[in-house]
Amino acid sequence: TPEQLTQLAKEAMLHAYAPYSGFFVGAALLCGDGTVYQGCNIENAAYGPTNCAERTAFFKAIYDGHRDFKAIAICGGKGGNITGAFPPCGVCRQVMREFCDDDFLIYLVDEKGFETRTLSQLLPDSFRASTHMQ
Ligand code: THU
């Protein structure tokens, strides 16, 4: 359920390595077969190599052979306290685009619950594999 996915995203947040921003992010990605992959943000002293929680979850799942995804729950906040829903960065949206359909669900977790978006809402008119195969 979205509630279970939300709980797993909150748990993933505790794994964050974020000594520079202090912004802890957790994600829980639901695969088509029901498997869930958790991810956290992993920062770097050189800043640029930082990996977001969403991409950590995707890359773990893709390495394991998953290609079918249903939904992702995302939460974050300074020092690990959720202070409101925040939408995923553009790079993560493009990674979602590579593997997910327009109706892929994105749960933005806040203090009280979550808001729901679809990938097509967050990344309309997107560049995707089918674009350069035309
Ligand atoms: N971050 C994520 O993990 N996901 C996002 O969608 C946006 C930003 C992380 C990257 C960095 O470690 C911290 O949040 C502050 O930008």
**Rg of Cα set:** 14 Å
Largest sheet: 5 strands, mixed
Gap from first CA to last CA? 37 Å
Q: What is the helix tally?
A: 4
Beta strand %? 25-35%
How much helix is in the residues?
25-40%
Mean pLDDT across all residues, rounded? 96
Molecular structure report:
The protein contains four helices and five strands, in the order αββαβαββα. The chain is an alpha+beta fold and 134 residues long. The protein has a five-stranded mixed beta sheet with strand order 2-1-3-4-5. Strand 4 and strand 5 form a beta hairpin. The longest helix has 12 residues. The radius of gyration is 14 Å and the shape is globular. Bound molecules: tetrahydrodeoxyuridine. The site of tetrahydrodeoxyuridine (THU) has 13 residues, from strand 1 and helix 2.
What's the structural blueprint in terms of helices and strands?
Blueprint: H1 2-13, E1 23-31, E2 36-40, H2 53-63, E3 69-78, H3 90-99, E4 105-109, E5 114-118, H4 119-122
Parallel strand pairs: 3-4
Antiparallel strand pairs: 1-2, 1-3, 4-5
Bound molecules: tetrahydrodeoxyuridine.
